[in-house]
Amino acid sequence: MPEPDFDFVVIGGGSAGYAGAAIASRLGLKTAVIEGGRDVGGLCILRGCMPSKTLLESAHRAEAIRRAGDFGLRAEYLGADGAAIRARKRKLIGEFAEHRRHQLETGKFEFIRGEAAFSDPHAVDVRLCEGGSRRLTARAFLIATGSRVKCHDIPGLREAGFWTSDDVLDSDQIPASVVILGGGAIGLETASFYAGLGSRVSVIQRSGQVLKETDDDVAAAVTEALEHRGVEIFRGTALTRVEHDGKTKRVHFTHSGAPRFVEAEEIICALGREPATDGLELSRAGVANESGAIVADAHQRCGPEHIFAAGDVCGPFEVVHIAIQQAEVAARNAARTLGRLAGPLDETDYRLALFAVFTHPQVAAVGLTEREARKIEPNLRVAKYAFADHGKAMVRGGTYGFVKLVADDACRIIGAACVGPEAAELIHEIAVAMHFRATSHDLARVPHYHPTLSEIWTYPAEELCGVENVIPP
């Protein structure tokens, strides 16, 4: 059998793919990265985390201008310049993408531009972007091709026309009104963006709460805050059809058993994403998959012991830091499988799984939700504290929401949630505490400067452990 071309071939040059290739090459594996997208950078940089947060920053500032009077300031919101917002986004994303391209082109691995398809478990055929093809053989593979927008077949939707998150992120148009199909993270961030710029926004969510992965009190808090900002949110719905009459689009649905409809200038489909596996010919390699999603075990193996997967293509969480963690686990395990690294196989640890939604106010969580924890911990301890009773939040004018700590019977913190100002930043204090397996006693004893947002965590910590246990011995 001829010598393989590479030890480790990565399919996909996004955040997970680059991380896996970087680790593999450092471990001495002869590595290649194949990227077939029109642009280089990956979902997070090009059409996900970074562009969406860039747009949201503009919306947050528009919101601050409209609230200037609350702080004794004279200011008037004169509207948004969609072209200027897009130009800022394109400039920043261009810089981020160029940095990633430089990393890929100068890394200690071969960077190949083209679309890969397995021909057998140890070979891929690559249709090169520059023309022609190339066959690569390898001892091990990492599949990290990400995800794509998922479109649902709703009668009349395609005929009426709609935007996806990709369209929102690169449009210079700001519709006067939008109806958003879906109340997940993408849907609510989109709602927050357009509401911040002054558009009339409606959200139609199929399940009984937005952000269905979160606890119901978390979902209720962000719903209340968005509704206070003028966002109309329908939960427990079933979409029936879409109509288009001139410039107006009408979405019909049932709500609480009754027929309803919402009209808007534009419809935005935010009904989730699906793994981007088309064209990979996974069956030829024996890769395990269900409905297009690759099934990976705790070692990130997906069938054959030498083929791994990471990121949105396999889940279970569609967030970039976990995709990177999975890819690094996969690279180390590939090295162990090939006899280049000693020790047992790594496993991806989801104990500190982080979640954040950059709405206004923000939503964030780490570890187990209260709902999940109650299924496994009979003597669960839960404590909450509201931002409405927190001095720094009141000073900032951001009093919606709360923080919540979830602990086991020994007061060890096993989860937390936050809805409120800078929630995505505040949650990391609990992530660090959980990393070191801290108890609420430990957290309550840590000094927190006053007045700060972060000191709010001390109040539920004190409640969980009892004030008498807070004073250091």
Helix fraction by DSSP (H/I, runs of at least 4):
25-40%
Largest sheet: 5 strands, mixed, barrel
Mean pLDDT: 95
Strand order of the largest sheet: 1-2-3-4-5
- Rg (CA only): 24 Å
Strand content: 25-35%
The low-confidence parts are: 468-473
- The global form is globular
Number of strands: 22
Distance, first to last CA: 68 Å
Q: Determine the structural class based on helices, strands and strand pairing.
A: alpha/beta
What is the number of helices? 15
Give keywords.
15 helices, 473 residues, alpha/beta, five-stranded mixed beta barrel, disordered C terminus
Describe what you observe in this structure:
- The protein is α/β, with parallel strands linked by helices and 473 residues long.
- It has helices spanning 15-26, 43-47, 49-66, 82-106, 157-160, 165-169, 185-197, 216-228, 282-285, 320-337, 370-376, 391-396, 423-435, 440-445, 458-465, and strands at residues 6-11, 31-35, 110-120, 123-128, 133-143, 147-149, 177-181, 200-204, 232-234, 237-245, 248-255, 258-264, 266-269, 273-275, 289-290, 293-294, 307-309, 354-357, 362-367, 381-386, 402-407, 413-420.
- The strands form 6 sheets. Strands 1-2-3-4-5 form a 5-stranded mixed β-barrel. It has a 5-stranded antiparallel sheet with strand order 18-19-22-21-20, with helices on both faces. The protein has a 4-stranded parallel sheet with strand order 9-8-7-13.
- Strand 15 and strand 16 (293-294) form a beta hairpin.
- Helix 1 (15-26) packs parallel to helix 10 (320-337) and helix 3 packs antiparallel against helix 4 (82-106).
